[in-house]
Amino acid sequence: MTDARLSQTEPRYMSGFGNDFETEALPDALPQGMNSPQKVNYGLYGEQLSGTAFTAPGHQNERTWCYRIRPSVRHQGRFSRIDLPHWKSAPHIIDDVTSLGQYRWDPLPHGDTDLTWLTGMRTMTTAGDVNTQTGMASHIYLVTQSMTDAYFYSADSELLVVPQDGRLRFATELGIIDVAPQEIAIIPRGLVYRVEVLEGPARGFVCENYGQKFVLPGRGPIGANCMANKRDFKTPVAAFEDRDAPSTLTVKWCGQFHACRIDHSPLDVVAWHGNYAPVKYDLCTYCPVGAILFDHPDPSIYTVLTAPSGVEGTANIDFVLFRDRWNVAEDTFRPPWYHKNVMSELMGNIHGQYDAKPKGFVPGGMSLHNCMLPHGPDRAAFEAASNADLKPQKLENTMSFMFETRFPQHLTEFAAKEAPLQDDYVDCWDGLDKKFDGTPGVK
Ligand SMILES: [Fe+2]
Asked: How far is CA 101 from the centre of its chain?
């Protein structure tokens, strides 16, 4: 037995999104020409991890073949329910919490208590129903402590992780992913991993997607390039540990958490091939496309990833990025216009200042503009944009994102009562007074 923990391994990545990858940490560990030979080299066990139903259409079908030291059934024991009181799942509607409204929060402060990826997850909103695999939850994580001989997987969801502060390592069955602010990671449903703190304290956002997996949006007439390009997504090469030590495995299943004891690390996949794998992406490689003469398109132009809902063009979740870019539109009100949206919009600030809200929406902060709730630029942004000299202007020092879902989002009790909610947020539109007086002309 070797005890080379993945913690001591430097991550290496393969380029592409949804590729059929193949990778092995030991030479000739990967069977060639077939998936399930009578005996696998090194005495490994062959095992398939399915990301879609067996019969999903070919262009959506995802699965990975793993060749591992023990089969996954040996990485589990008799489960007991455990309580992670701050990690909630939909449906989760609290009687005395009003979700109808526009809300904004200051960053959750780092506290004095040591928190892991599991104990540090704070659910802010839930939408849909985890049991029917529709909708999502939004979380903020506060993590100070690495998981040690502790492992986790979610049978409920894939996790889209958006770091805002600190650096994390995801040591997964299929390899290692390190992430820092302005990067994201996607951890697939069912994949076992532990999270280590490389630089703490760490804070960030998580979109827990109960539904179909995130894919790249169709570009339509934009063509084959720009927005998020496949080559900029990075999937880890195979890496494993052969470690015998008392350990725990925690599973999220139908919104509940269960734990069991095992006597070794489950991160024992020596080789794998397939297209169901974790991935990271550097948001700074996102190539924005926008208006180059007048007006501006819908914010969907900034979609990085989309998770379909089954209704064509209506996402279970869109992940949308507002990064630094040029504003050049002539005779145009350049910030986002006022609007009322059938989708519900949860935003987070990763870095810098957001153009529609120059104050109050700060890095680490979050806002929610729920289904059919009007919103738009605050008074200061409206006045500035209405009177600006419209020469080309570069929006710099800015990176915010949106988790947009077709489902209404419900606040958790934590979001409504414990998190630093800005009670005066709706006042930001005060002073947007009537200019109309019945006479023509610019006011
Ligand atoms: Fe909006």
From this structure: 24
State which residues have CB under 5 angstroms from ligand 1, the bound ion. 345
pLDDT in tens, 410-440: 999 999 999 999 999 999 999 899 999 999 9
* Ligand 1 mean position, distance from CA 75 (Å): 44
Place of tokens 């935003």: 347
Question: Which letter does DSSP use for residue 421 in this model?
Answer: B
**Residue 173 half-sphere exposure, CB side, CA atoms within 13 Å?**
29
pLDDT at 1 over 70: no
Residue 111, exposed/middle/buried by CB under 10 A (0-12, 13-18, 19+)? exposed
Are 303 and 345 within 8 A, CB to CB?
no
- Catalytic residue numbers read 296
> Per the structure block, which two tokens stand in for 156?
């409920």
* Tens digit of each residue's pLDDT (9 = 90 or more) over 220-232: 999 999 999 999 9
Tokens of 221: 């007439």
| Residue 249: Cβ within 10 Å count | 21
Residue that is written with structure tokens 């489950």 in the block = 266
- The one-letter code for the residue type at 241 is E
Residue type, 148: T
CA of 375 from ligand 1 middle (Å) equals 6
- Contact between 347 and 398 under an 8 Å Cβ cutoff? The reply is no
Strands 393-405 and 314-327: antiparallel
Determine if residue 216 is left, alpha or beta; phi over 0 gives left, psi from -120 to 50 gives alpha, anything else beta. Answer: beta
- The beta strands (E) that lie in 25-82 are given as 45-50, 63-68, 80-82
259-292: string of b/e by CB count within 10 Å (b at 16+)?
A: bbebebbbbbbbbbbbbbbbbbbebeebeeeeee
Backbone angles phi, psi at 175, to 5 degrees: 140, -175
| CA 337–ligand 1 middle distance (angstroms) | 8
Centroid of ligand 1 to alpha carbon of 157 (angstroms): 25
Residue appearing with tokens 């998770």: 307
Contact call for residues 342 and 249 (beta carbons, < 8 A):
no
Residue 2 has pLDDT above 80, yes or no: no
